[in-house]
Every structure is written in C-alpha cells, then in structure tokens.
Amino acid sequence: MELSVDRLTKQYGNKIAVDCVSTVLKPGVYGLLGENGAGKTTFMRMLCAILESTSGEVFLDGREIVSMGAEYRDILGYLPQEFGYYPNYTAREFLLYMAALKGIPRDTAKKRAGELLEIVGLNDVGTKKMKTFSGGMKQRVGIAQALLNYPKLLILDEPTAGLDPKERVRFRNLISDYAGDRIVLLSTHIVSDVEAIADEVLLMKKGKLVSQGTVSELTKEAEGKVWELMVSPAEAKIWQEKTAVANLRHEGEQVVLRILSDDKPTEGAAPCEAGLEDLYLYSMRECLK
Amino acid sequence: MELFKLEHKKLWRKNSTRVCVLLCFFYCVIFGSVLVYQWLTFGSRKDYGTGSRDFDGYENIKDCQTYFHKYGELTDETLQEWVRDYQRLHKMVVEEERTQGVKNKEILKQYQNSGWETVNSMLKKLYPELERQDMLTAMVMSCYVEPEKLTGIYERREQAIETFLDISGQTGAERDYLLRINEKVKTPFSWKWVEGWSNILGNAVSGLGTAIALFLAIVLSSLFAGEWHDNTSPLLLTTKNGWRKLACAKVFTGLVFTLELFALTAAGMIGSQLVFLGTEGWDMPIQTVKMIAIAPMNMLQAEIYEYAFTLLGAWGFAGVSMLFSARCKNHVLALLLSLAVVYVPMAVHNRVPAALGKAFDLLPLVGSGADVFRTNTFHLFRHYIWSPYLLIWVPLVIGILCMPSAVRGWSRRMRR
C-alpha cells in the first residue's frame, strides 16, 4: 500500500495553508511535526478527503482518493483534532453508532467495541454517558472509534492531547502494535511521542514540508548545531535575546543554556548530542528568539 | 437499518426530545382533552357570570347523551319536540329563580345539559326570520321561538347553503360543484348529543396540529444542525456510509419520530375521548354540528380525516423543518425558520388577500382539518377542487420535496 501526495495545496484567500506538499507514505508510523498554524490539520483533512484541495492530488495505490469515495473511507480511520461526540450517548453506544456509520455488522461491532474499550482502558465506564467523561477519557473514545474498522490508513490529529503520561505510554504501545502493514500518520506537539514510535517524521513549517526522514536521519541534520553554554543569570538573558535557546537549567549559581546555532556561538560553548526535539526547535528557531 | 435504529435512539436520548414529548402529551392529552372533558368545557357551570365550572364533566356528558336518546333522528317533529322540552325546562328554571332561587338542581342540570348551544345555532341559521331583533336577543332563540313554525328543516338547509354560496360569491361552476357534493348528504340525520363531537372536530384535533408543530420544530431543528453543534462532521464524513446514508437515516428518523409523537398524542386523545364520550354518535352526519356543511361524512369519518390531515401535515412539516436543519449550521436559526413557516402565515392569515390566505393554508400545519365543515375550493387547471382534498395532500408533497434537498444541502454544507 502506498499513499502518494502530489503537490497538494490549500489556499484560503491570500493565505496558503498547505503549500505544494509532495510525499509518499508506505506502511509504518509517521509523525507529523510543526508549530501551530503550520498546516498539519489542513494537510490531514485533505488526506482524509474531507477538505477539497486548491490544487494537487492524493493517490492511494495509484487511485485518486476523492474518486474512490466509500472504498477509500472504508480503509480510513480518523481522529480529528477537535473530537466531537454525543454527550447523551455512552461510550459503548457511541462506538456502536460509529461502527454502523462505518458499515460494520452489528454483532462484529459489539465485539469490536468491547475489545477497543478494553484496549483504551475504558471497559469499566463503557456504559456511562460521555458527558461525564474527562478530556482524556473522551480522547480515548476518539482513538477507539478510529480503530473500529481496522483501518489500513490511520490518521490521528493530536491523539495524545489531554492524555496523562500513563495513557500516553499505553497509546504509544497500542499504535506500535497496530501499525504492522498499515500506514499510521499522527500529528502532535509532543516530540517524545513521535520519537518513541514514529518510523519516519514529517516536519512542516508555514504550510511547507521542510523535512522528512527517520528520527536518526533527521537528528543528523541537527548535529553540530546544538551547543551547551554555562553562563551567569544576567548573561543568560542576553543570550536568550540574541540566539535560539532550546533549554535553560540552573546549576548552582550558574545557568546552562542549550543553544541552537549553525556556528559555535562563543568560545566557551561545547557541542552536544542532538535529538529530534533539537531539530524541531532548530527549524522553528526564529520563534525562540 | 442499524444506522436508523441508532440515530433514532440518539434522538430519543436527548433531554430536549423527552421534555418536548412530555409537554406535547401534557398539553394535548391532559390539558386539551382530559381536563376539557372533565372540567374546562363539560363541567357544569357554577354560574354564568364568571364561567367557572365544576369538576364533574364525566357525569354531565353521560347526562347530555341520555337527554338526546329519545330523539333518534333530526326531523321537523323531533326538532319541535326538543324546543318544547327546552322551553318547558327554561320556564321552570326561570320560575324557580324568581321565587326561591333554583333549588331543584336536577332540573337545572337537565336544562344546562340539553345541548342548547348547537340547536340554537342551527335555528339561527335555518330560521333567521324567526330570530327577534329586539331587546330579547340576549335570550337564546330556543327560549322564545314557536315550535310549530320550525318546519321543512331539510329544505331550509338547502336554502341556507345556497344563500351562503351567494353571499360568499361562489357562483356558476363552483356553486354547481359544491352542490353536487352536497347531494350525497343523506337525510334525515341521525341526531344525538352533538357538543362532544363538535369539540373534538372543531377544537381538539385541529388544535393538535398547532401544538405538534411547536414541539416537532424544537426536536427536528437540531436533527442535522445539531451535528455542527456537537462538532461531529469530520468524523461522520470519514466513515464508509458517510453523509448520504446517515442523512437518509436522519430523514427516516425524523419521519418516524413525527409518527411516534403523533401516535402517542393521538392515542391519548382518542383514549380520553373513548372514556368520556364512548362511541355514541359516531354515525351522526357532521351537518348536525354545522348545518351548511356539504361534506357527506359522519363524525367518525370526519375525525379520521382530521387525524390523517394532522399526521400528513406533520410529516410535511417534518420535511420542511429537516430542510432548515440541514441548511442552517445554527439549530436556533433552523428552529426559528421552522416556526415561522407555521406561525407567521397563521398570524397574518386574516390580514392578507383571500387568495394568499388560501395559499397559506396549503403549507404544512397552517390549514385546518376543520375545513371539512367549509365550502372552500381551489381553482386549478380550470377545475374546482374542494379544499380538504388538497389540504390533506399538498403539505405532505411539500415535505417530500424538501427531503432530497435536505440530504443534498447537508452534504454540501458538511464538505465546506
């Protein structure tokens, strides 16, 4: 299975939300990173065929997805960023409703809903109305509904938002187990989640796809651009104003800065090992100044 | 089917739906039916000044029905006999009032339960020349009219219909058409106590549509538009059955809910009707309620017509309401538009030209099932059509025409 995106563009008036994005997604887990307004959600909505592109196309195994219609939606699982639900439905009823919409026979749906509630840790509250759920619980129902039809293409927009650390770990394990020969694309601001499960990372900035590769490939891009510098608190303020500081920690009376810079910022700066977060922040470095 | 069942369940899960059904039932069945029979309309009058009544409608209704058992059919003789009986009772009540106050409650009750309101209106319509134009007009005509002058009742009726058609400007082919319908009315009329049926056909069933419109609008306006409120459109659009099957399930749910609301309310009303009135008088022609009615229908047929009118009108209205719900993202706006379709034409009906008023009647739940008592016609393609024939079907057709548009409109909005 191959999902190829060809020069996909979405324009709202004068604003370009997604700018000529081309990529190919094969089975595996893809993490989509980008600051707020980078175009991640718009890009995902176009991949789900619920938003018309201004130009460009998306093909699944050579077939244009919009023209595939129900056939495409049959293999798709989607969790939108703002997950809507019916407050008076119980979690189980909501899953059965979504299963009916996905064309899953009732008996299969009942079994699958039970399995998924177990998987997302909501089995004991499956008969409670969703209006009584916390944000994280609702999010878990959202994840469960996306998995109902064993989708071959799973698109999750900020799936870990609102989940506590324990649930995030559960989610990461779930996705890793699930992926196999399927395509999973998830967007998040939590770089460690992507680092933990993504086979490949797509980095978006101002509507453009600026980088794509495995975590190790991308961190290589940041190598030689991450520096540590120990300074006084007064100096730290000056450094924060003139350069991109990814992190700041106090050590006794001194402050240790993690600086993102193409060149060695000063004689006392020591190079250090780059991570995915460094690359992410490096690409957004003008926002850090 | 599964989708429909779940959509239907979802609708009933909403608190607003349950409250609306409960209020509709309370308003139409408890307030508009049970209390009307037992107290508000058929309870015996405490006094004529305040119009307050006792909580004894059930006994009163039985007394009224018993009072009419002796007449059987409406003929010159039975009408005269009724007037004589009434005048005798009137005299006794007046005499008692003058001397010692009305002590004999039995006579007073019989006097009140003699069905004088309907007969009086019949006399005024058929024997206008006998109505006094002096100070005594405050007195009901049955009190002073000479019984032996009340003759030729059916000839008088024919004459009254013709006079009415002349006054209302219904001449030529239209008049012939209406008179042809009237020819099918069989005489003499079976004659029993009429007030109960008059209330059912004149107020209760025709009022049901007005109440149902309000509650249907509240429930159905959020059927499609509610998805925007719940922010579920991205989820719905990415499912295999997507918007199309869901929209069809929603339309079907709307229609089934309309049937359920109607059935629940109508069953309650018919149940209380059977408890309080029984079935007596079902075979009376509707002319016993309104003499110049031309429809060859008995009470049961007219009641069936009025309920069918309400149900078909409600389905038509459901279609319109669902269209607004599908076209508006805001369900409050959808609600206001739905209500406007019914209540604005009702409010301005008497202030617009007659032709426009008649056109308004064709809108779902705007017209009235009580048109079976009237001689209104529509002139279409050089043919005259008696209004009830059109009034019952056109609202349904309007609703049906709205449904595909609702499905299409919703999908278009969802994809934007």
What would the keywords be for this entry?
heterodimer; A: 289 residues; alpha/beta; Rossmann fold; six-stranded mixed β-sheet; four-stranded antiparallel β-sheet; 29% strand; B: 416 residues; mainly alpha; 2 domains; two-stranded antiparallel sheet; 16 helices; 4 strands
Please tell me about this protein's structure.
The complex is a heterodimer of chains A (289) and B (416). Chain A has 289 residues and is of the alpha/beta class. Chain A folds into 2 domains: 3-214, Rossmann fold, CATH 3.40.50.300; 224-272. Helices cover 37% and strands 29% of the residues of chain A. Chain A has 12 helices and 14 strands. Chain A has helices at residues 40-47, 65-68, 70-74, 91-101, 106-119, 135-147, 165-179, 191-197, 215-222, 233-242, 276-283, 285-288, and strands at 3-12, 15-25, 28-34, 55-60, 63-64, 76-79, 153-157, 183-187, 200-205, 208-213, 226-231, 244-251, 254-260, 270-271. In chain A, the strands form 3 sheets. In chain A, strands 6-7-8-3-9-10 form a 6-stranded mixed beta sheet, sandwiched between helices. In chain A, strands 2-1-4-5 form a 4-stranded antiparallel beta sheet. In chain A, strand 12 and strand 13 (254-260) form a beta hairpin. In chain A, helix 4 (91-101) packs across helix 5 (106-119) and helix 9 (215-222) crosses helix 11 (276-283). The longest helix of chain A has 15 residues, at 165-179. The mean pLDDT of chain A is 91. Chain B contains 16 helices and 4 strands. In chain B, the strands form 2 sheets. A two-stranded antiparallel sheet of chain B has the order 1-2. Chain B has a two-stranded antiparallel sheet with strand order 3-4. Chain B has 416 residues and is an all-alpha fold. Chain B folds into 2 domains: 2-39 and 192-415, no CATH class; 57-170, no CATH class. The model of chain B has no long low-confidence stretch (mean pLDDT 92). The chains are: A alpha/beta (289), B mainly alpha (416). The A-B interface holds A 45, 48-50, 52, 70, 73-74, 76, 78, 80, 82-89, 93, 96-98, 100-103, 106, 145, 149 and B 2-3, 6-7, 9-10, 13-15, 227, 230-242, 245-246, 415.
